[in-house]
């Protein structure tokens, strides 16, 4: 929901003169655009920012999790992944490069431009997925997974950075959720798509292995998306060509809470390192570590739990993997709307975490498969919804547009460590209940609720002190308030 301007004045200047030079846009003390102009601009932004971002992020989720579908489609036998910890190793190496290269990627993306940089990354990781369809050993699979993590590392933090560069504080939650949940639709239907691909048989050699076609077809789709993505991906505000000068001015000026709408200036390496010293980043990172760990553990082991833990057939396990994600998408978007509309963050995040805990307990203890399957709906919603919710939480507490990219990259980098945790806590020797993994996930969700509540109470107190004049400008920006 766009914030109403404090007042409106009409400036009678030529369009070109109104927007100054490239170095600085000199903004008057009062906003000089109407609510109607801003509403029309935001609507235009929505249609340009999200479509391609959602498509390529959906492909990225599909490409990093399709290994679980391939595993139960015959890859585990062909590559002997059941020996020792081979499968867990193939899962966790993805997150090494994913964690290391996220922050550097967000420092590069605004310099090179989103279209060029993201287009390269998408094409490169598509080639890695395609290559996995031709491997003959678990070592080669592991190498491809490691490269996949490096190239995928820039997309998610880059997408969140782009959204944070275009939208206001209480516009971010539902839009980050839209970005994440619309793309999750592809991941939700991934098991059904993977099942269809696994039925492909060609010739008498290795191409009769259906699991290979999961990687080959999905890899080709990603490579094609990467090649065409520069045409459709949106750029940062200072680079766009599809806004007229006044729209571009409003887009940049409306985000500047200090009423000094300056053109984006790239932070130096020293400035970026100084941004990392903000202690609140530790809290945001703990939150995201927990949600990432929970999400990845469910994504990687849901097909195995449905097959081995609940006793469903291979085909049914693939098909039943989709409905919980469809429910998660609808419920998460509804809760994100509540978060933005009523300007509340922590009650929504804690509520979703509690729902996740209840769902995990229902999966764990009741005996009837139908009841346990219902628990999967709750667990997927509770854990998945807090991914975009937590990212929006971090972005909402950040006043400096330049710092938003650092915050997103750091959170998601630490989330990669959560991915390592999520890919290893469900051990094959713990089947079929996976008791240690389930209780580890439940414990982390309890910690998430406690950390989120404590941090939000602190931020509310800082806002109150600033309102009473007992606290200097929050985040160094006069008039800025946190969004707990």
Through-space gap between termini: 17 Å
Order of helices and strands: HHHHHHHHHHHHHHHHHHH
Number of strand segments: 0
Say what the CATH topology is: Growth Hormone, Chain: A
In the CATH classification, which architecture applies? Answer: Up-down Bundle
Residue share in helix? over 70%
Number of domains: 1
Taking all Cα atoms into account, the compactness measure Rg is 23 Å
Mean pLDDT: 84
Q: Please, could you describe this protein's structure?
A:
- With 484 residues, the protein is mainly α.
- It has one domain: Growth Hormone, Chain: A (Up-down Bundle), CATH 1.20.1250.20.
- The chain has helices spanning 35-78, 86-92, 94-100, 102-112, 114-132, 138-152, 155-166, 172-188, 190-198, 210-232, 245-253, 269-275, 280-309, 314-319, 323-341, 346-364, 369-396, 401-424, 435-467.
- α15 runs parallel beside α17 (369-396).
- Residues 1-29 and 257-262 have low confidence and may be disordered.
């Amino acid at each position: 929901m766009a914030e109403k301007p404090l007042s409106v004045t009409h400036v009678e200047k030529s369009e070109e003169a109104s927007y100054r030079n490239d170095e600085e846009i000199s903004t008057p003390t009062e906003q000089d655009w109407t609510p109607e102009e801003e509403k029309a601009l935001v609507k235009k932004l929505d249609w340009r920012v999200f479509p391609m971002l959602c498509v390529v992020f959906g492909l990225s989720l599909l490409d990093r999790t399709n290994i679980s579908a391939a595993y139960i489609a015959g890859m585990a036998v062909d590559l002997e992944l059941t020996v020792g910890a081979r499968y867990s190793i193939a899962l966790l190496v993805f997150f090494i490069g994913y964690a290391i290269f996220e922050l550097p990627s967000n420092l590069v993306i605004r310099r090179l431009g989103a279209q060029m940089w993201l287009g390269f990354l998408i094409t490169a990781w598509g080639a890695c997925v395609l290559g996995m369809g031709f491997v003959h050993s678990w070592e080669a699979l592991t190498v491809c997974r490691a490269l996949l993590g490096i190239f995928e590392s820039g997309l998610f933090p880059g997408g969140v950075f782009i959204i944070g560069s275009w939208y206001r504080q209480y516009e971010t939650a539902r839009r980050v959720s839209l970005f994440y949940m619309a793309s999750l639709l592809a991941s939700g239907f991934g098991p059904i798509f993977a099942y269809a691909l696994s039925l492909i048989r060609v010739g008498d050699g290795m191409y009769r292995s259906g699991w290979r076609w999961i990687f080959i077809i999905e890899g080709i789709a990603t490579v094609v998306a990467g090649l065409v993505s520069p045409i459709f991906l949106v750029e940062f505000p200072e680079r766009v060509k599809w806004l007229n000068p006044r729209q571009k001015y409003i887009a940049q000026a409306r985000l500047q809470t200090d009423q000094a709408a300056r053109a984006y200036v790239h932070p130096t390496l020293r400035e970026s390192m100084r941004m990392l010293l903000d202690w609140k980043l530790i809290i945001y990172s703990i939150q995201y570590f927990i949600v990432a760990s929970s999400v990845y553990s469910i994504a990687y082991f849901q097909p195995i739990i449905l097959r081995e833990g609940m006793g469903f057939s291979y085909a049914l396990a693939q098909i039943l993997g989709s409905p919980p994600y469809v429910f998660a998408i609808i419920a998460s978007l509804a809760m994100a709307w509540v978060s933005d509309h009523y300007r509340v963050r922590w009650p929504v995040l804690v509520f979703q975490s509690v729902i996740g805990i209840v769902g995990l307990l229902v999966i764990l203890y009741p005996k009837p498969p139908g009841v346990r399957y219902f628990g999967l709906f709750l667990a997927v919603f509770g854990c998945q919804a807090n991914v975009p919710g937590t990212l929006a939480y971090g972005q909402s507490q950040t006043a400096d547009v330049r710092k938003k990219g650092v915050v997103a990259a750091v959170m998601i980098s630490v989330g990669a460590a959560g991915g390592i945790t999520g890919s290893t806590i469900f051990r094959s020797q713990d089947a079929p209940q996976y008791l240690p993994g389930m209780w580890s996930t439940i414990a982390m969700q309890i910690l998430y609720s406690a950390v989120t509540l404590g941090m939000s109470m602190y931020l509310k107190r800082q806002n109150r002190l600033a309102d009473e004049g007992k606290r200097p400008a929050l985040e160094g920006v006069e008039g800025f308030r946190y969004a707990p």
